[in-house]
């Protein structure tokens, strides 16, 4: 498929041929869901913790005699049935990550790119470079109508451009190796540089 290339100032800069293998697939929601779930679970810290009955700060003395009270039989006040007692089978620190085959991850990224291309939310720019001034870049982004955009550059992001984009709300910049399904889907507009297109096609073909 062919797409027009623009510059950051809005001028046209020719066109680029996008690989149908990467950018023209029929998006599958099940694949995208699997990859996003894998990403989010892997990112979870898993530091949640509840105290068990061996960790709460009551005495371990038996609270009253076993028989003759007319009440239930109890040991110490750390039992889960009591207020401020230990929690039974509560959360413990653990990893939430699970495995996902590389083929599925690769296919998920291709479907995410294809989804943006089909929605008309994919923009290709000539290059992502500027003088490092946030104000000038913010004006260009506003003129282009990008409110929530992800810009994916080639193997490395231009340092001045990254610095200028850092304080612009709703604008994210990633190198091609950082391209991922979750960040692509959560932004309204996906912006690729020509170098980014080449790097992604080389990575996914």
Automatic annotation (TrEMBL):
Output the superkingdom of the source species. Answer: Bacteria
Q: Name a GO molecular-function annotation.
A: structural constituent of ribosome
Gene Ontology CC: ribonucleoprotein complex; ribosome
The record, for InterPro entries, names: Ribosomal_uL4, Ribosomal_uL4-like, Ribosomal_uL4_dom_sf
Q: Where is this region: Disordered?
A: 64-97
GO BP annotations of the record are: translation
Query: Pfam families per the record?
Result: Ribosomal_L4 (PF00573)
Keywords linked to the UniProt accession: Ribonucleoprotein, Ribosomal protein, RNA-binding, rRNA-binding
Q: What does this protein do?
A: One of the primary rRNA binding proteins, this protein initially binds near the 5'-end of the 23S rRNA. It is important during the early stages of 50S assembly. It makes multiple contacts with different domains of the 23S rRNA in the assembled 50S subunit and ribosome. Forms part of the polypeptide exit tunnel.
Q: Which family does it belong to?
A: Belongs to the universal ribosomal protein uL4 family.
Self-association or partners: how does it assemble?
A: Part of the 50S ribosomal subunit.
State the protein's name: Large ribosomal subunit protein uL4
